[in-house]
């Protein structure tokens, strides 16, 4: 069995891709150390990840993690939310299938297609606000566009009142920040469970034409989602529906502005926007290392043996840049690349239900942004953009730009 020293994952996310190169030197699966000295593994090889993501020996159920079951993982562990939330991401088999069937009713092709006018309206409103920025003034595109767009879309879909949105979204924002203290981690679990529990109760009292009301009313064989499942599902949907799309938009904009020749290809119609979205998803997966899976037995994989019950992350940011699949130029942004294969929405039973919605949001938002502001430029080189303080997500902390002249309204 191959033995290597574990890589302590950088809680500040200083350089996700450099860290992945170090991990890859161990092979397609690498030993890591999580916050608090907790041992684990991450899978960063594409072919191996496809196998792991469909292998039932890698379960999502934290009851298969002896360290957690035995009380060795404290309730204020910085990553505890990824263990205690009760939703599709912590279930397998029949329980997962039941939850997924109920929740998938909120993401049918018809429902997703029907969101186009909502996405277009929110996009136009945000671009109108940006148009009021004085010429030459530096503006953070992440804060003013890439974040509020998907956050507004997902909150509108789930019927979160405007006055409650900051509280409803805050838990997911904190949850992805691996640099938080134990005190912040414990407080965050309490905060999101309370805020989303209040949303569930409000929809029970006064149902609306929204997806939270759909979930509250959803039943299978007479069985409804429990309060814990409802709250956990809302936590998942609101967090994933805002944070991941935000990073997708940020990376696509930064990559295009850093490669003007490729931006010209898409603006002149030589390459379509779908290719931009897929290349961004491949080379800059919005998620860096997704927690958790747990081995139900000793599993020999990728030249190592992962002991029974060890936590395993899936390193999507490394998977998309796997040179074994995409060659020595895997790290380069190239919208003309013939093979843009990626796993950024997952694979197998846990494939992301929101993938069609995320793609639709990006396909609407990106061309609208560049049409409205053809003179948009980065206000700082991409090498000067600070990262999010996390090894879970992959995105910049801010995207400072100048907007230049305005195009069509």
Top CATH class: Mainly Alpha
Global structural class: alpha+beta
Q: Would you identify the CATH H-level superfamily?
A: Cytochrome P450
Per DSSP, the total helix count is 18
In total, the number of strands is 13
The CATH architecture assignment turns out to be Orthogonal Bundle
Rounded mean pLDDT is: 93
Q: What is the terminal-to-terminal distance? A: 61 Å
Oligomer: single chain
CATH fold-level topology? Cytochrome p450
Structure commentary:
- Keywords: Heme, Iron, Metal-binding, Monooxygenase, Oxidoreductase.
- Belongs to the cytochrome P450 family.
- One of its GO terms (molecular function) is monooxygenase activity.
- With 409 residues, the chain is an alpha+beta fold.
- The protein has a single domain (7-402), classed as Cytochrome P450 (Cytochrome p450, Orthogonal Bundle), CATH 1.10.630.10.
- 47% of the residues lie in helices and 11% in strands.
- The chain contains 18 helices and 13 strands.
- The strands form 4 sheets. It has a 6-stranded mixed beta sheet with strand order 1-2-3-11-8-4. A 3-stranded antiparallel beta sheet has the order 5-13-12.
- Helix 9 (148-157) runs antiparallel to helix 13 (227-258), helix 11 (182-205) packs across helix 13 and helix 13 (227-258) packs parallel to helix 18 (355-372).
- The model has no long low-confidence stretch (mean pLDDT 93).
């Amino acid at each position: 069995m191959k033995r290597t020293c574990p890589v302590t994952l950088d809680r500040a996310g200083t350089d996700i891709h450099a860290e992945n190169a170090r991990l890859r030197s161990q092979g397609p699966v690498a030993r890591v150390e999580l916050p608090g000295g907790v041992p684990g593994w991450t899978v960063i090889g594409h072919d191996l990840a496809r196998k792991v993501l469909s292998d039932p020996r890698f379960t999502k159920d934290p009851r298969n993690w002896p360290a957690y079951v035995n009380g060795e993982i404290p309730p204020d562990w910085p990553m505890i939310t990824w263990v205690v939330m009760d939703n599709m991401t912590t279930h397998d088999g029949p329980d997962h299938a039941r939850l997924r069937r109920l929740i998938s009713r909120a993401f049918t092709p018809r429902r997703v297609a029907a969101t186009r006018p909502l996405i277009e309206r929110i996009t136009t409103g945000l671009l109108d606000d940006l148009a009021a920025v004085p010429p030459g003034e530096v503006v953070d595109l992440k804060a003013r566009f890439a974040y509020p767009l998907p956050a507004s879309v997902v909150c509108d879909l789930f019927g979160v009142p405007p006055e409650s949105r900051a509280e409803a979204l805050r838990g997911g924002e904190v949850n992805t920040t691996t640099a938080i203290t134990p005190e912040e981690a414990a407080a965050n679990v309490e905060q999101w469970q309370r805020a989303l529990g209040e949303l569930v109760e409000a929809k029970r009292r006064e149902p609306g034409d929204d997806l939270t009301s759909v979930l509250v009313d959803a039943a299978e064989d007479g069985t409804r989602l429990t309060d814990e499942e409802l709250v956990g599902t809302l936590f998942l949907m609101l967090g994933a529906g805002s944070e991941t799309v935000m990073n997708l938009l940020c990376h696509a904009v930064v990559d295009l502005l850093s490669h003007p020749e490729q931006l010209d290809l898409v603006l002149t119609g030589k390459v379509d926007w779908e290719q931009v979205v897929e290349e961004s998803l491949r080379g800059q997966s919005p998620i860096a290392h997704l927690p958790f899976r747990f081995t139900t037995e000793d599993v020999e994989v990728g030249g190592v043996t992962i002991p029974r019950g060890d936590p395993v992350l899936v390193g999507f940011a490394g998977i998309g840049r796997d040179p074994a699949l995409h060659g020595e130029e895997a790290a380069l942004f190239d919208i003309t690349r013939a093979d843009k294969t990626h796993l950024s929405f997952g694979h197998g039973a846990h494939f992301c239900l929101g993938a069609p919605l995320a793609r639709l949001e990006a396909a609407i938002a990106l061309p609208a942004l560049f049409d409205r502001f053809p003179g948009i430029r980065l206000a700082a080189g991409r090498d000067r953009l600070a990262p999010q303080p996390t090894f879970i997500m992959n995105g910049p902390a801010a995207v400072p730009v100048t907007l230049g002249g305005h195009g069509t309204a």
